[in-house]
Amino acid sequence: MKKLCALLLAVMMLTSIVSLSLAEDSKTLTIVAWDANTTGYLTAQKEAYEAAHPGVTIEYIDVSSQDYDTKVAAMLAGGDTSDIFMVKDIPALLNWYEAGYAENLNDYIAAANYDLNGFVGMEVNYKFNDEQVALPFRSDFEILFYNKDLFDEAGVAYPTNDMSWEEYKEKALAIADPSKDIYGTHYHTWLSTAVNYTVADGVNTLVDGEYSDLAYFYQLVQDLEDAEACMAYNEVSAAGLHYSGAFGNGNIAMMPMGYWYVATLITNIENGSYNVKNWGLAAMPTKEDVKAGSTFGNLTGTMINKASANKDLAWDYIAWLSGEEGSKVTASTGNRPAWVSEGVADVMSAVEGFPADEVSKASLLPTYVAIEIPGTALSSQISNILNEEHSAIMTREISIEEGIENMNERVQELLGE
After folding, report:
1. How many CA atoms lie within 13 A of 370 on its CB side?
2. Which of 25, 302, 380, 397 has a CA positioned 20 to 30 A from the CA of residue 251?
3. Under a CB-based contact definition with an 8 Å cutoff, are residues 248 and 273 in contact?
4. pLDDT by residue (tens digit) across 227-258?
5. Could you give the domains of the chain?
6. pTM, entire model
């Protein structure tokens, strides 16, 4: 009996030691995000990381998407110790960095010999004063959607991944047939879908106060409008026509748009609500002096909170999330990771409903992705000015030359030049 009691006591002691050890090894990583309960890729990322890292639990703190930047700023100012904050907007990240809330990642990157080349230039938008303060994990860059059936009917060759803007214009004009209500291309009302391709050269930006480079693209759009190869800005604006329904209607041959539209397109073709059936993707056209495959987009990233008590674990997570493995998880949910590689492209193109042709798959490998509008203290104000003048140009209230002159004068005044 005494031996049995001793044995039971030993087992209990051993169990306690194991439980204590497991408790000590277990860690919770808190990540502040928006729409955490309804965003599929967040769930997939959490499950994949936890499966590969036993003992680690990811806990999302959900903040309203509408007020995210404001509420996060208040959290950080109040001493919040959450480990990671997701980055929605670059100007907000700049504010958090300047307030001293963002951990400098330079030493982590150097110690891990972390290769940043997979970001094809996107990571520099999270770099301030030579300090890398966040890493991107999503990037919905601009890409060209096209309707293969309309190209086939017109006998026009499909777009390629090294097409010039002049070739794009020629195709749009060749396919357009106003008598049949068929358009060669389509532009949504945003400034970005009309002229922002100028930033794809890695030199021009929308915050530099000099906008003569936009004239080429404004003239291109207006020429296509005049030839009835695309719907006029006034028509699209007055009708409140959404780009998704416009292309889905089946009478538009090409449309520049963010990659996020892929998921919508696949879903609506599957449920029968779109007329377009046979579609493809191609890299955005480029000017002659710009490398093929260059485009622009927006970023979603992660920042380590300087007040975190789990910085090493937080670094491990964001390094995984933004790199090859985490990017494949993000891609498996139909979302576009920031990381660019053949492996990630394989996962993206394997999504059911994605075009089977090689050009569409290769378009997932951009050579350079510029940011739509860089983060500066004046980005929001500059954006407002550009959008006001853009509307005046596109409604033809003023000429292209007048609009660009107004942009230059107003932004330079704002910049104090």
Report:
1. 22
2. 397
3. yes
4. 999 999 999 999 999 999 999 999 999 999 99
5. 2-140+298-349 (3.40.190.10), 141-296+369-415 (3.40.190.10)
6. 0.86
